[in-house]
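Please check the following for our workbook:

***
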Amino acid sequence: MKDLFAAVCLVAVLEGLFLFVAPIAWKRMAERLLDLPSPALRSFGGLVLLAGLAVTQLVQRWLTDTYLPKTELDLGARNSVSTVARYLGIIIAVFWALSAMGLPLSKLALLVSALSVGIGFGLQVITQNFVSGLILLAERPVKIGDWVKLGDQEGDIRRISLRSTEIQVSDRSTLIVPNSELVTKTVRNMTMGNNQGRIQIQFAVPPSTDVGSLRDALLQAYAAHTNVLKQPEPSVYIDSIAGGQITINSFAYVASPRQVYATRSDLYFSLLQILAERNI
């Protein structure tokens, strides 16, 4: 938390320097150029914008490659700080350029009002995703590296931007999800607070089955697999007896949800082999 606070303060100081210190020099230059025709001022403002964007990129690269890796922040927190710094720098660069062009504040107010009307009528979805992106970066209900399940899709979060989030699913394709989906809909975060994954094996057998031997076979299969954790211990239960069937339900845990599918498949193979050897 201390590193996150320090990083946010550092970003604010750096961006503040560009907002309050650098424009002084540009303002003096703009005052000398006020007698130039309007196209020249627009060109000057374009150069200021390019300079601001270049400085923003340099600051973001320094944060990502040099400063943030030395802190104790996890990958998700580093991404949040870097992303906020980038968009804050872009906003500052735009206002910096408009100020350098000598655009009066009254005209800026009219421009903002026009943009507000346009956003209200035509850009509601984009605005919703933008605000949702800010919520994700601030609250971090999901972060880079988390394994999440959204509807019938699940995978690793690879990137969070202000408009969308990229999730790499099991077939190595990338699922691009609008940020509003992650804020307004139910999302299952499989690694939030607990990185362990749970394996469930459930099946039904006839009443004549030796359930004691079946239980021993399941526990033997669990104990033999290297991915299955010793704690919490694997467990086997009789879930129900109905319709002439005994329903067996069993659970075991692995170190990560990413190991569940492959480990469960291995356990099925081992269990079938053990049952065949014991004539169960």
